[in-house]
Amino acid sequence: MKITILCLSLAVLTAAWAADGSLSWPSYRGPKASGLCDTREAPLRWDIAKGTNILWARDIPGLGLSSPVICKDRIFLTTAIAKEGGQAELKVGLYGDTESAKDDGPQSWQTLCFDRKTGKILWRRELHAGVPQIRRHTKSSHANSTVATDGERLVVFLGSEGLYCLDLDGKVLWSKNFGRLDSGYFRRPSAQWGFASSPIIHRDRVIVQCDVQKDSFVAALDIESGEVVWRTPRDEVPTWSTPAILERSGQSTRIVLNGYRHIGAYDFLTGREVWKFAGGGDIPVPTPIFAHGLIFITNAHGRMAPIYAIRMEAAGDLDPEDEDDAHIAWWTRRGGNYMQTPIVVGDLLFACSDFGILTCHDARTGERHFRERLRKGKSGFGFTASPVSDGKKLYFCSEDGLVFVVEAEKRFNVLAENSLGETKCMTTPALVDGILYVRTRHQLLAIGTPAGG
Questions:
Q1: Tens digits of residue pLDDT in 310-325
Q2: Domain of residue 50, CATH code
Q3: What pLDDT, on a 0 to 100 scale, did the predictor assign at position 86?
Q4: How would you write the chain as a 3-class SS string?
Q5: Would you say residue 3 lies in a domain?
Q6: How far is CA 426 from CA 38, 170, 354, 386, in A?
Q7: Share of the chain above pLDDT 70, in %
Q8: Structural domain range at position 117
Q9: What's the pLDDT tens digit per position in 202-228?
Q10: Domain tally, the chain
């Protein structure tokens, strides 16, 4: 079901918006890719039809799967719009088809900017137009990568169609093209699935992870000029994971990458490899996350679906199979994620599979507290979007537009089940000051408790 903008008064919207406009969700998965914002509780329940706890809803043109990014009073998304008209198909659900979508016509790649209080589109900027160099999967789009901001600039990665840096009013400051970035299943190279790794910004650099069919690499670019500071080759097959920045007192800053042939960390300043190992699932998607002195990496597909807990001081060649490897705090061969990035809330690590099976571990020790299915008695629809949390509750969006609200405790407890009003949701929400910003197939929704609610 499609819904139209709800006409709440500006006073109510302003009160619902964060009093501190500096709060933000600057890149994929928010601050430090944690998925966590505990400044205010998010709503337990909402009702699309009645408008309960729905602050606004805004239609989005085209097809894109980038997640919302928030800087002060603005929200940023990307989309790809077919030049020849018509609506691009997005086929959700649990199916094993490796074929690419059959939409090879010209596209317009655009960045959209919304007002965070009202949902009004403030500007839209076309960054590229033409025939896509790489086809997409039927469950993907031509605009998958989430943008990143440092509060002054916006970095947009369109894969083979280029990397762009804009100011927050949409002016292009510079662009960089890495050539053809062919992402697809390495065991069947003709199956192209679309680029999805998102850029991140740290200090004065933009970091990109480009794991593709040929000549994979990780690179750092100067955010002022777009010049490449360093570029390190990776012996890696295509992956769809976003890199993560690890800062720790007494250690040099590191960039941590998921992978199949090369899970590893690199020195932020030089691109020098710090540690690595191989193995796990052969289609890595989740982003590394950090908590309690540990790096959590998970992936799936093929014979394994592991979760690795790696000590932050790791160095050299690691081997999870070696019980004497002191750099591995704990790991499990099964229970890891294919699509979703896991989340740590307090002492607990939550990992949800694309089948909607949620596992809870003690983050420090790996002890499993529960493994339960979110959706009882139903199958056929998967879970791709990663969870977010307000510190007390977890929010899991299913592909067919349901949001399961789970208590962030070591006992399994589904608190509520809410509809997003339409049957397709693939993107991870943003969460700022108790308001969920959720992108569905056709709309961007702001879900929160109005003032006094």
A1: 999 999 999 999 999 9
A2: 2.130.10.10
A3: 80
A4: CCCCCCCCCHHHHHHHCCCCCCCEECCCCCHHHCCECCCCCCCCCCECCCCECEEEEEECCCECCCCCEEECCEEEEEEEEECCCCCCCCCCCCCCCCCECCCCCCEEEEEEEEECCCCCEEEEEEEEEECCCCCCECCCCCCCCCCEECCCEEEEECHHHCEEEEECCCCEEEEECCCCCCCECCCCCCCECCCCCCCEEECCEEEEEECCCCCEEEEEEECCCCCEEEEEEECCCCCCCCCEEECCCCCCCEEEECCCCCEEEEECCCCCEEEEECCCCCCCCCCCEEECCEEEEECCCCCCCCEEEEECCCCEECCCCCCCCCCEEEEECCCCCCCCCCEEECCEEEEECCCCEEEEEECCCCCEEEEEECCCCCCCCCCCCCCEECCCEEEEECCCCEEEEEECCCCCCEEEEEECCCCCCCCCCEEECCEEEEECCCEEEEECCCCCC
A5: no
A6: 23, 26, 11, 9
A7: 93
A8: 10-447
A9: 999 999 999 999 999 999 999 999 999
A10: 1
Judge whether 389 lies within some domain. Answer: yes
Quick one: which of 205, 229, 223, 239 has its CA closest to 164?
223
Measured in degrees and rounded to the nearest 5, phi and psi for residue 100 equal -85, 155
Residue 305 lies in a domain: yes
The answer to the question of residue 453 being in a domain is: no
> Rounded to 5 degrees, what angle do the CA atoms 172, 175, 176 make?
170
Give the length of the chain: 453
